[in-house]
Amino acid sequence: MRYYLSDRFILKLLETPTVYDIRNDELYDLDDDAFEFLKKCAGNEGCGEEGADKEFIGYCLSEGILAKEPVNVKRPFIIKSPVPSLRYLELQITDKCNLKCRHCYIGKPLNNELSVGEIKALLNEFEEMQGLRLLITGGEPLMHSRFEEINSLLPEYNFRKILFTNGLLLTDNLLENLHADEIQFSVDGMEHGHEAVRGKGTYEIVMRKVREAIDKGIAVSIATMIHGEDLGEFEEMDGLFRKIGIKDWTVDAPCVSGNLRDNPIFQVAPEVAGKYLNYGFGDGLHGGGEGFACGLHLMSVLANGYAAKCAFYSRTPAGNIEEGLSALWGKIRPIRLNELECFSSSCQFIDACRGGCRFRAEGIYGKDFYRCHAYDIIK
Ligand code: SF4
Ligand code: SF4
Predict the structure, then answer these.
(1) Which residue of 158, 173, 245, 366 shows the fewest CB atoms closer than 10 Å?
(2) Where are the alpha helices (DSSP H) in the chain?
């Protein structure tokens, strides 16, 4: 009997050896022997049972990691990732947008976009660095003048691709031909709350697109901002999103930048917004790693060609993409939890909270009071 690494699985040499399920977004830790065995199975000839642990083979078959038929998939070279590994790349392909949301952190778009050549070079390097998830963002990414070409590049790469969109430009044709494993829609409330920040008529469209994507078998997640007009709508959103099969629901409070500066009524104070941060389910995208604050494995490339810890740090970029992703990643210093005030004040929630959002926190090492209110540690 020969075994083959299934087409949706890819070996990644991160801090430890792993195999990643691209379709289901699951990462399995492996020991060195298991990694070497699966490496053989990833070759064209597959692998036999010689020298392998039968129990491990049985487990791999039950998880779908191994198949009994050859698969036709291009496997990239495996090169050890840097430490910490760059697992999530947020690619702001354009800052153009078809909406002017009142709480948008970007503000007035400057009509920047990354060229297709720049995007291809970044994706090549991200794959080489053992990247796991590509987050395709904007602005509104579907406003990129060559989105179709970008979309056609995606199947070449062995990582998970997630499209972030407001849904309005997601035509039936695009949905049919989209090479994304997941779509994350922005839904900022039920009809009243969503349209208060995004404009009349936007809610019905985005929710129709959400349902169409689910019907096509695409994984769908939703991101929601807490703002002045959606506070009474969280219970209803929770019920709706669970009922229709949303994979992840991320709830966040906006940082005061961009359009929100001109629309202060949409700002919600930490003591009010904090408790809404307890809504949401599934895995977030900005998590830290053990012992580190948020974004340990994340970097953003902005539409102007500069890269930063995340898109909120666009004013203090690490450098330009001309330097290459690997050099830029080396310039972003991870923040350890023991550097934070949260650590020196012995917060009991530090392992779960990880000091919240560093951009929203008071100073580089201060507390994120929105999170403190979520955990109810300040009254
Ligand atoms: S600073 Fe905030 S937005 Fe940026 S990665 Fe951390 S949690 Fe996410
Ligand atoms: S709850 Fe507050 S003090 Fe505790 S880790 Fe989070 S931000 Fe820091």
Answers:
(1) 173
(2) 32-41, 54-63, 116-128, 147-153, 172-177, 191-198, 202-215, 234-244, 270-273, 325-331, 341-344, 350-353, 369-374
